[in-house]
Amino acid sequence: MYQPPADEGEIVLDLSQHPVNLMTGYHGDAERQAEATAGGWYHTGDVAQRDGDGYITYIGRTDDVFKASDYKVSPFELESVLIEHPAVAEAAVVPAPDPTRLAVPKAYVALAAGWEPDAQTAAAIFEHARTHLAPYLRVRRLEFFELPKTVSGKIRRVELRTREQEAFDQGVSLSEEFRDDQSTRST
User: Fold this and answer.
1) pTM of the predicted model as reported, rounded to 2 decimal places
2) Residue 61 DSSP symbol
3) 162 and 168 in contact (C-beta within 8 Å)?
4) Residue 184 DSSP symbol
5) For residue 162, is it within any domain?
6) Which helix (H) or strand (E) holds 124?
7) Residue 106: closest CA among 158, 170, 164
8) Pair 112, 147 in one domain
C-alpha cells in the first residue's frame, strides 16, 4: 500500500522496488525479519526530518529517540552539542525517568584530559548546552562516567538506559549525578 512521504519519521525503503544492496533478511530470526519488512517496507530504524527546502536532517535511531515533556528528543542532536565543549571527550544522552516530565535528557560524559569531574565542570557544560540548545532540549542531568562500549567501540546506550530505569525503580539517587537546577551533586 502506497503511503505519501512525510516530513518526519522513520526512513523506510519500498521493497517492491527491489532496493540494491539491501540484505536478504535476518537468518534464523523470522520475528525480526517480519518486523523489519512490515507492510512491504524495509524499516531502517533511522529517524529523519525534512525541512521546507527539502533538506533532510538525521534525528537518530528509533530505539534511541525518546519523549521528554511530550517533545521528541534525539540523543544524537544533544550529544553533537555536548562534544563541542572542550571538557567533553565523549557523551551519551539517555532518558532519565522523572516523576513530573516522565523523562528528562541525561548526559553521561567522558571527560577530556585535564578536566576534573566536579561541580564547576558540570556547570560549564550545562551553560554550554543551554546556550546551544532549544529550552525543551535542555540537558537536565549529567554524570561523569566511563561509557560502556561494544567491541567495535560503539557506545551502548541500552546499558545506560537500563541503569537509569533500575535506579528509578529502586528509588535510588545516583550520587555522582549533577542537575542543571543546582551546582552540587544530588543526594
Assistant:
1) 0.70
2) E
3) no
4) S
5) yes
6) helix 119-132
7) 164
8) yes
CA distance 148 to 118: 21
CB of 140 closer than 8 Å to CB of 180? yes
**Residue 26, Ramachandran bin (φ over 0: left; ψ between -120 and 50: alpha; else beta):** beta
Q: Cell 538506559 belongs to which residue?
A: 161
Tens of pLDDT along 37-93? 888 888 887 878 888 898 888 776 776 778 888 888 888 889 999 999 999 999 999
3-state DSSP assignment of residue 161: helix
Q: Per the domain annotation, does 1 fall within a domain?
A: no
Quote the cell numbers at residue 38. Answer: 512490515
Same domain, 99 and 28: no
Residue 113 burial (CB count, 10 A): 6
**Beta bridge partner(s), residue 12:** 43
